[in-house]
Amino acid sequence: MDNDQALYSLMDVNKRLNTIVYDSIFTSHLTLMSRSSNDSINSLSDTVLDRFYFSILPLIHHKIQWLNVESSSIERILLCGNYPNLYGVGLYNLEIERAKHLFTDGNIFTDLFKNQILSLIICMIKSKKQASTKDENTILFTRILTVFPNLQYLNFESSSFYSPYCSFDKLHPNCIYSTLLELYINVMHFSDCLYLLNGQFNQLQVFHVRISWIYRFSSLTINNTENLPNLKCFSLYSDIDTSFYDQLIVPLLHRMLNLEKLNLYLIICGKKTFIDGNDLKKNIINHMPQLNKFTFNIRSTVRLHNEINLLSKEDIQYTFNDFENKQIISCVDYFSELEQSECHIYSYPYEWKEYHKITNNFPGGTFKYVREISLFD
Q1: Rg (alpha carbons) of the chain, rounded to whole number
Q2: SS (H, E, C) 262-278
Q3: Domain extents in the chain
Q4: Rounded to an integer, what distance in angstroms lies between the CA atom of residue 307 and that of residue 26?
Q5: Buried-state track 199-208, b at ≥16 Cβ within 10 A, e below 16
Q6: Which pTM value belongs to this model?
Q7: pLDDT, tens digit, for every residue of 51-72?
Q8: What burial letters (b/e) apply to 279-312, b meaning 16+ CB within 10 Å?
């Protein structure tokens, strides 16, 4: 039973149950919304919400530390008490127009809690009128950081159905947000990632970024050589192929001298050789002495030019023999008609929600997180 269900069903039944549901186990983290089997978010019924508004929240508001809410109900929920211990909020089903209203001066959320909120999850959805533009998303992202000066954790990319992308090619504020320690965000270009690591967040320790396009050309000119000593965890996800692995991605990773956790999802083309264990050791692992967890899902494509000695799956697998994580899966396919070959390597257990381009050489296994697949023949 979820905390909201326990409070709704058991509060005021009798004194003994009241003592139980008043405990911080049920009241410190509260989710006032429902999630369906396909991960869509829905508001609770009016009957349930009214009970919380009038009977439950006024009694427990001082115990609540984190609220997950469907965005349409946040203001009314906040009017039910002063929430002195509230430090984290998850806002779901947030349309861009609603967000503009919510994060303006004069709103109860920003006026009363701007110095109190340390953690914030923003889960955007498409507006019924139109999807938000990258400029609107960027303005909103910057506005949130300005409104909440003590923010330490910001998740601006969390959604199963819609991902708001930011771009700083036109809008690139020079403010420094020295309190932020953990950031999750989607950006349009690799240069946007570099911008975010260019001193704006000089205390950032955890950075998860999804990048649409990884290429060299950009209106932003940003240094990609200065070290990032505070960064401890980095996750890079890009599901569009790039030929700039050596020129852009590897130099960025070399800046992360003290990295402890690394997660890569990449599709790489334009190289003369596959990405294998030797490449990962030479270009990544040997440059990160503190690295203790490395998960990856990398697909590399190489053009065929009448080669005679073709690498096999066993050849690729051999390059991982001295990896600390012995559970590495490799798969090699050759497509003579397309004059190309492809190598897919990933750490196991498989942690991603999609598995694309399954061929006859699919190695099998357990994929409990996968929700999307595609076949290739």
Answers
A1: 24
A2: EEEEEEECCCCCCCCHH
A3: 1-86
A4: 64
A5: ebbeebbbbb
A6: 0.91
A7: 889 988 998 899 999 999 999 8
A8: bbeebbbebbeebeebbbbbbbbbeeeeeeeebe
